């Protein structure tokens, strides 16, 4: 009997101590994201396509990185496109935010850099949007595919770009190349 | 065959008896097959096998379709990532949907606010049961 009472008391003390240690809910929330990211970032290095490069400015900050895509084929071939990826505290319930920092002429990326990619959408009615089962590597592959397989002229964000494509493919191509020359070429 | 024998037997003696019988049966069958070439030899058959020792082996596993919570990526039978860091291991329970996918209740309650679908199969999320 005595040992049981002692054990219960010990358990209670331990619990109280634990609660005190994590008084700020915000603090523990951050650590959940970072715990998930620690695993994902290790996997990420081995799993990016050849045309992609992931850079972390600060090795201690895993929730922010840049992705450089250099497409090897398609309209945007040889251009250097930099995406800034920010992972919110609520990850992986909420999707990462992505901004294209390189000015680009693309039906699914606005000239301000907003990216239209289904898996980045927070709320969707079908299964194409964000889900906690998705990982950073899916984002990288998705952004990379915007230059090839996922390129979509029928549901454009940059309507003007899509219209130009349907009107005159040759002038669309020229415009893309102009933008690459101006904004997406290697810096000297 | 052997597994069935073991699982049905209550004691070593019973098991050894059945194995002996099985051995005799198979030898008899063999004899029938070889009848044309060799005459049956009943005396030599009796002590072909003696079972001296036997061990029962059993395996178990959780009866759930997926064992890792797709949201926090921790085994559903362990506490979720959040409860681990909040030291609330005992309160962390598992939730099953009609689709038979399971998650930590706390992980799922965060997700359904965002999108009331199973993150694994995209079906409308309907709770089947909550427990451990």
TrEMBL record, chain A:
Chain positions covered by the region annotation Disordered: 1-29
E.C. number: 2.3.2.34
Protein name, as recorded: E2 NEDD8-conjugating enzyme
CDD domains on file: UBCc_UBE2F_UBE2M (cd23794)
Keyword tags: Acyltransferase, ATP-binding, Nucleotide-binding, Transferase, Ubl conjugation pathway
Chemical reaction(s) catalysed: [E1 NEDD8-activating enzyme]-S-[NEDD8 protein]-yl-L-cysteine + [E2 NEDD8-conjugating enzyme]-L-cysteine = [E1 NEDD8-activating enzyme]-L-cysteine + [E2 NEDD8-conjugating enzyme]-S-[NEDD8-protein]-yl-L-cysteine
Start-end of Basic and acidic residues biased regions: 7-20
Lineage: Eukaryota, Metazoa, Cnidaria, Anthozoa, Hexacorallia
Active site: 116
Superkingdom, natural source: Eukaryota
Signal peptide segment: none
Pathway named in the protein's UniProt entry: Protein modification; protein neddylation
Domain UBC core: 32-185
Enzyme class: transferase
GO biological processes: protein neddylation
Gene Ontology MF term list: ATP binding; NEDD8 conjugating enzyme activity
Organism of this sequence: Desmophyllum pertusum
Family, as annotated: Belongs to the ubiquitin-conjugating enzyme family.
TrEMBL record, chain B:
One Gene Ontology MF term: zinc ion binding
Keyword Transmembrane: no
Pfam families registered for this protein in UniProt: zf-rbx1
UniProt cross-references to Gene3D superfamilies, sorted A to Z: Zinc/RING finger domain, C3HC4 (zinc finger)
Pathway involvement of the protein, from the record: Protein modification; protein ubiquitination
GO biological process, alphabetically ordered: intracellular signal transduction; proteasome-mediated ubiquitin-dependent protein catabolic process
Keyword Aminoacyl-tRNA synthetase applies: no
Keywords, in A-Z order: Acetylation, Acyltransferase, Cytoplasm, Metal-binding, Nucleus, Transferase, Ubl conjugation pathway, Zinc, Zinc-finger
Cellular compartment(s): Cytoplasm; Nucleus
Top EC class of this enzyme: transferase
Top-level taxon of the source organism: Eukaryota
Catalytic activity reported: S-ubiquitinyl-[E2 ubiquitin-conjugating enzyme]-L-cysteine + [acceptor protein]-L-lysine = [E2 ubiquitin-conjugating enzyme]-L-cysteine + N(6)-ubiquitinyl-[acceptor protein]-L-lysine; S-[NEDD8-protein]-yl-[E2 NEDD8-conjugating enzyme]-L-cysteine + [cullin]-L-lysine = [E2 NEDD8-conjugating enzyme]-L-cysteine + N(6)-[NEDD8-protein]-yl-[cullin]-L-lysine
Domain RING-type: 80-122
GO cellular component: Cul5-RING ubiquitin ligase complex; cytosol; nucleus
Quaternary data: Catalytic component of multiple cullin-5-RING E3 ubiquitin-protein ligase complexes (ECS complexes, also named CRL5 complexes) composed of CUL5, Elongin BC (ELOB and ELOC), RNF7/RBX2 and a variable SOCS box domain-containing protein as substrate-specific recognition component. Also interacts (with lower preference) with CUL1, CUL2, CUL3, CUL4A and CUL4B; additional evidence is however required to confirm this result in vivo. Interacts with UBE2F. Interacts with CSNK2B, the interaction is not affected by phosphorylation by CK2.
Family: Belongs to the RING-box family.
Name assigned to this protein: RING-box protein 2
Organism annotation: Desmophyllum pertusum
Encoding gene, per UniProt annotation: RNF7
